[in-house]
Every structure is written in structure tokens, then in C-alpha cells.
Amino acid sequence: MLTDLIIRSLSIKAFFTDEGILPIEILKQYNWSPNYFSLHALSGDLSWQIVLFIINALCIVLLTIGYRARVFTFICWVFLTSLQNRNPFILQGGDDMLRLLLLWATFLPWGERYSIQKKSSYANHYFDWANIGYLLLPASVFFFSALLKTSPEWRTEGTALYYALSLDQIRMPGGNLLYQFPLLMKILTYVVFYIELLAPFY
Questions:
Q1: Which of the residues 19, 44, 102, 153 has the least number of beta carbons within 10 Å of its own beta carbon?
Q2: Running DSSP on this structure, what letter comes out for residue 115?
Q3: Contact 39/52 with Cβ under 8 angstroms?
Q4: How far apart are CA 74 and CA 103, in angstroms?
Q5: Is 115 in contact with 69 (CB distance < 8 Å)?
Q6: Tens digits of per-residue pLDDT, 79-133?
Q7: So where are the chain's domains?
Q8: CB 13 within 8 A of CB 46
């Protein structure tokens, strides 16, 4: 979540203010529902967005160290949903998955381990419906994603990663480095496909 927030903060003015590509007035006119909420859409000022980003980052840090984990999980979910609703045109499937995983996590006692809490009343093994939802969500996304990868780029040629990294808008510094090694990209294409297909069963 913190990495996602840092990446978004690099384009905070362009994507989340009225000076950018999607002023609040346009957002409300063309892509808004009465069911949406967004703290980030309360004002188009840069200073308002900076304050929200800082508060969001602090909440993520508190969640990471396990301080009142359930409360801060919910608060982080509210901030994440708010941020995503502010500019839905820059979202992709991973954003939806992060938001849904965070929602499921509000029902898990994940502040009971590796947190600043001194004692825990929970046993080392914990099972609840929230576990099932939390595990099935990414497993189903990976598995069904693999089933949809029927083109030769994934199954026989192994060129899918090459084509993905050929798009400048999604190639980050790591992609620039990887792009120099075509054989490695071919191997990684197959690795990704089979991990997505088989990992959910483990």
C-alpha cells in the first residue's frame, strides 16, 4: 500500500487535483455514482491532496507495525477506496484486488502477530470465513487469469513479457533492465503462466 501511495504521489498534481487531467467537476459529471465516496474529491487543491496523502501514509505505517491493526486496516481501506474513486481512469485490476484484499483483511486478526502488541489471546492456527475469502480472492484471480491466457505469446512463443514491457507507460526502471535480456523474459513468461495456473492449488 505504501509503495502504491508513493508511486501515485509522484503524479499527485496531474491525477488528483483540478489542475490535472480530471477536475472534480468533470469526474462528477461523467464518472460518478451516488454510491461512491471520496475524501480526495472534496477539494481539487494540491494542498488538500498532500494532507490526505500524508495522513494515509501515517495510517499505513501504523497498520504495518500492528498498532490497532483492525481499526487501521479499515481506515486504510477507506483512504484507498477514496483515492481510487478520485480518478478511476488510471486504475487497473491490481488496484481492485488490493482494495478487496484490504476489505477482507478487516475481518482478520492480523494484528495478533508481528506487531507491537505484547500478548495475543489467539492460537497459532486460526480459521474463519475471512480466511477463506482472503485466500480464495487472489487464488481465483491468478487461476482464471491463467485460463484466459490462450494466445501463443503465453503458451508457445513466450513473448508476452516482451510485448508488455514494450509499452513505455508500464515499463518502470526494473522493466528497462529486464528488457535487455530477451531469453530471460521468455523464461519468465512461462514461469508467470505456470505459477498463475498451479499456485492456487498449493
A1: 19
A2: S
A3: yes
A4: 7
A5: yes
A6: 999 999 999 999 988 899 999 999 999 988 888 777 777 676 777 777 788 888 8
A7: 1-116, 125-202
A8: yes
DSSP assignment of 126-170: ---HHHHHHHHHHHHHHHHHHHH--SHHHHTS--HHHHHHT-TTT
Grid cell for residue 178 = 529486464
Q: Which residue has the cell 531469453?
A: 183
Helix axes 69-86, 93-105, angle to 10 degrees: 150
Q: Position 53: which residue type?
A: F
Q: What is the pLDDT of residues 20-68, one digit of tens each?
A: 999 999 999 988 888 899 999 999 999 999 999 999 999 999 999 989 8
Three-state SS annotation for 25-66: HHHHHHCCCCCCCCHHHCCCCHHHHHHHHHHHHHHHHHHHCC
